[in-house]
Amino acid sequence: MDTFTIVHVIISLIGIGSGLIVLFGMLGGKRLDGWTALFLVTTVATSVTGFFFPFHGFTPAIAVGIISLLVLAVAVVARYARHLLGAWRWIYVVTAMVALYLNVFVLIVQSFQKVPALKALAPTQSEPPFLIAQVLALVLFIILTIVAAIKFRIEPVPK
Predict the structure, then answer these.
(1) How crowded is residue 129: how many other Cβ atoms within 10 Å of its Cβ?
(2) Are the C-beta atoms of residues 109 and 138 closer than 8 Å to each other?
(3) Fewer CB near the last or first residue (10 Å), C or N of the chain?
(4) How far is the C-alpha of 32 from the C-alpha of 27, rounded, in Å?
(5) DSSP alpha helices (H): ranges in 28-157?
(6) Distance (Å, rounded) from C-alpha 156 to C-alpha 159?
């Protein structure tokens, strides 16, 4: 299980890193096809591999995984089946960024659980440092997603 956890974390970090590159590409009006494919594949893999951890009953982690896969399905359709035409462009931006945000949300949760200095600041994850980190991430993603949806006005993907 330790090796599986390490692989899952590496895939997650690649998804977050490539997702941030895709986000900054969107802000600059660039499609970044290779980075986009890497982001979508690793983010799907992150959610899928998350279901292989042992669990007992329905948990918030399972809910996040399900929501992530649903928004990723829409993002993939918007990007590859609908070729970013018309409204599919902003639908892609929003769903891709929701998926990225969910990965960052989980990264913050895991960081406050696993990093000793952060765990000391918020041992139950109901303390202000944890809540502030999550609210700041959410607000930042809302603002960046709105700006990306406005600026990502490039030519559609060739069919």
Answers:
(1) 13
(2) no
(3) C
(4) 11
(5) 33-50, 60-76, 88-114, 116-121, 128-151
(6) 9
